[in-house]
Structures are given as C-alpha cells and as structure tokens.
Amino acid sequence: MRTTVGIIGAGPAGLLLARLLHNAGIDSVVLESRDRAYVEHRQRAGILEQGTVDVLRAAGAGERMDREGLRHDGIELRYAKKRHRVDFPALTGGRSVMVYAQTEVCKDLIALQLKEGGPLLFEAEALAVEGADTGSPRVRFRHEGVEDVLECDYVVGCDGFWGVARKAVPAALSRTFERTYPFGWLGILADVPPSHDELVYAHHDRGFALLSMRTPTVSRLYLQVPEGTDAEAWRDEDIWAELERRFETADGWRLQRGPITQKSVTPMRSYVHEPMRHGRLFLAGDAAHIVPPTGAKGLNLAVGDVVTFARALTYEKETGSAELLDAYSATCLGRVWQAERFSYDMTTLLHRAPDATAFEDRLQLARLERLASSRAAETDLAEGYTGFPFG
Ligand code: APR
Ligand code: PHB
User: Fold this and answer.
1) pLDDT tens digit sequence for 62-96
2) Which fold has domain 5-71+98-177+269-346?
3) Where along the chain do its domains lie?
4) Which atom of ligand 1 is nearest to the CA of 305?
5) How far apart are the first and last CA of the chain?
6) Which of 9, 102, 144, 360 could share a disulfide with 159, CB 3.0–4.6 Å?
7) Which of the listed residues 156, 159, 222 should we mutate to test ligand 1's pocket, taking the one with most ligand atoms within 8 A of CB?
8) How far apart are CA 330 and CA 51, in angstroms?
C-alpha cells in the first residue's frame, strides 16, 4: 500500500487531518487500531473553541454541529457560595465557544471520510514507524490479522498518548516535560436537563466540581477525587450529595438530579514532547501533548496541530518550499505552551491539592476575587478559554 500521507489514529486529530487533506486534493490513508463503534462512543470533553468551530465549518464538517451544538457566551465561576459570570463576547470582541461533544465531531468526520474521503481502516494497528528520517517513511501495521506496510511521503502520528509514533523519535533528540496531579475527575453522564444554561466551574474546600452538558436533556458533571479512585466505589446518591455540597450558593440555587447512565475517572496530567517533528514524521494532538481537562483544550490543540500541518503541506505542494513544514514543530509548540499554561492556571485555581497549605487556600480565593473584580484579569481568562489563534 502507498499514499502521500499516512495517518495513524482516527481520533479528532487524524480524522480532521484526513478531511483537510482531502479538501486540498492530497491523498491519505488512516489506520485506526480500534473498531468504529469504540471510536464513536468514547466519552471525552465537549467544548469547541471559536477557531475550532470555524475550521470544522470551513472543512464542510459543521452541518450537524451548527444544528445541534449549543453556543455558549460565558461560564460561571462559583466560590465561597458566590457566583460570578464571565461574559466571553463582551471581553473578547465577540468570541464564544460551542458545546458539541467530541464523540459527535468524530461521528461526523467518520461519516464524511467513508462517504467521500480516502481509505479509513478500523482494527488496523500501527506497529512501528520506520525510516522517519529518510525520504520514504513507512508504517508497519496489522489489519485483520495480517501484517502489511504503508509506504508514505509523510507520516502523521495522531495516535494519542499511548500510541507508537512518538517512539520513532530517537530518545537523544527528544525532550519531555511532565507534571502529574495528585487528583482526578469522577465524571458522570445523567439523563437530566442541565441545572444551569452555562458551564459552572466550582471551587470548594472539599474540591473542584464542574457542571457541563451534552444536550438540553443530558448533563455532564465532574467531581475532583483523589488519584486512583475507583468510579464504582461511588454510589449514585453519594455523587449527587457531593455535587450539591460543592455547587451550593447563598442564593438557593438547586441542582436537579436524574438517572446516572455512565461514570468514569479521568487522571490529570500535563505533558509535552519536543520536538513535534522528526524528518518526515510529524506528531499531532495527544501523541505530542496532554493538558489537564480543566480548560477543555485537548481537542482544540489537536485541531490547531493538524490545521498547521495541512497548511504547511499544501504550501509545499503549491510552491515547492518546505519552509512551513520545517517550522511545524515551533509553530505548534508556541500555541501548545500557551494552552499548557492556561490549563495549569485553571487547574491550580480551582482544585484543592491534598497537601495545600492555609496560605495557598487564601491565595486561591484572592485569585478568584481578582477575576471577579478586574476586567483585565477576566479578559485574560476569556481570551484563553475562547482560544489562541491557530499558527
Ligand atoms: N495504531 C492505530 N491507531 C492507534 C494506535 C496504533 N498503534 N494507538 C492509538 N491509536 C488510536 C486510538 O485508538 C485513538 O482512536 O489513535 C487515536 C487517538 O485519538 P485520541 O486519543 O482521541 O487523540 P487525538 O486525536 O490527538 O485527540 C485529542 O482527544 O484525548 C482526547 O482530550 C483529548 O480531546 C483531546 C483529543
Ligand atoms: C465536558 O463537558 O466534558 C467538559 C467541559 C469543560 C471542561 C472539561 C470537560 O473544562
């Protein structure tokens, strides 16, 4: 098998890249180790930055998003039983975000790819990337029990944090930057209309809580829990009681309960692998970097990477110049580190570390009061949340 761009992984990064390349007249093959149902049902975050919304629309993948997605013009910060709304359009010159689940983005892109794109092979596991620093890189993979080789001009590793692509960058050329957090998120899906029309980020002495949503009738809620917590150890009524405690306000706001249809625990980490390119191998999305979910940046970063790669390759095809491909890693990393900073700030602003001192507790409250009383501080949050421009 041979193609121009071999794409490993059919998460949002790989799927959107295949679509962007198809639109630019560049052929690709996508290899995905899991089956279609698995990819389409994996629960992930659901906030699309303004730039991500624009890219999906321009790629012809925004039709259902525009019909079913919920435009959000702000979020609420809740702390010390008080509520403070951050108004995105007013602070950013009209920018907002869209609530539309990552699984839905993946479903839309898979349907388009199968209808009019290049090959997308499910249950095709990449085993290794070879010859990354030669003119003809290859992906060895196994599909339906048979080993095969995909010969490429370029390989893009969109295979997530646990993938194989990153391993093809020699250790002597790699640098990694990492931070793990001593807590995770217990996330639930519940068949109940969201109790607030915007997302609520709550700071509480007992830990962080987040109210989010999937649709007007499905709520998504999270609780900060100790690292290593087993989701099944939490009874449904205990989850609701804890959510109620952490969201409590002085003005009598009520949290609506409903049947919990899913629960799981997500670990929290920050991670960056530099560089994001080695020869003709490019890393995109979670394969190169992880952010804690507090700022909802994971999917949006993946989109920024593949937009940068598609532009760079199109430029090379049109002009013969590899200038933008050569700049890929540096271009992406600028934005990646801004998102790392933003996600770290949001995480440390809102979570209670198990070893937090009384001094740190007071500082957190001072940071929240500052956000609630300074337009400059609020603008910084609003700009970060609605997203940094794609390079
Ligand atoms: N061969 C083929 N496919 C693989 C392999 C492999 N060896 N290893 C992993 N994959 C697939 C996974 O099954 C998954 O479908 O690569 C895909 C990677 O997708 P994601 O993990 O969704 O990563 P990405 O596309 O970069 O999207 C980033 O996903 O993890 C969230 O919060 C993150 O929202 C962000 C987004
Ligand atoms: C979600 O809806 O899953 C979600 C929303 C906002 C976040 C993280 C996750 O910051």
Assistant:
1) 999 999 999 999 999 999 999 999 999 999 999 99
2) FAD/NAD(P)-binding domain (3.50.50)
3) 5-71+98-177+269-346, 182-268+353-386
4) 26
5) 32
6) 9
7) 159
8) 20
Residue pLDDT, tens place only, 273-283: 999 999 999 99
How far, in Å, is the centroid of ligand 1 from the Cα of 364?
Answer: 34
**Average pLDDT, rounded, for the chain:** 97
Classify burial at 100, counting beta carbons within 10 Å of its beta carbon; exposed 0-12, middle 13-18, buried 19 or more.
buried
Q: Tell the residue nearest (CA) to atom 32 of ligand 1.
A: 298
**Position 316: which residue type?**
E
AA letter at 64: R
Backbone φ, ψ for residue 269 (5° rounding): -150, 155
Q: Which residues are catalytic?
A: 72, 201, 293, 297, 385
Distance CA 242, CA 233 (A): 14
Specify whether the CB–CB gap between 99 and 9 falls below 8 A. Answer: no
Atom of ligand 1 nearest to the CA of 164: 7
The residue to mutate among 198, 218, 220, 342, having the most atoms of ligand 2 within 8 angstroms of its beta carbon, is 220
Do 5-71+98-177+269-346 and 182-268+353-386 fold alike per CATH? no
112, two tokens = 């388009």
List, for residues 87-140, the tens digit of each pLDDT value.
999 999 999 999 999 999 999 999 999 999 999 999 999 999 999 999 999 999
The rounded Å distance from CA 93 to ligand 1 centre is 34
The band of 43, judged by pLDDT with boundaries at 50, 70 and 90, is: confident
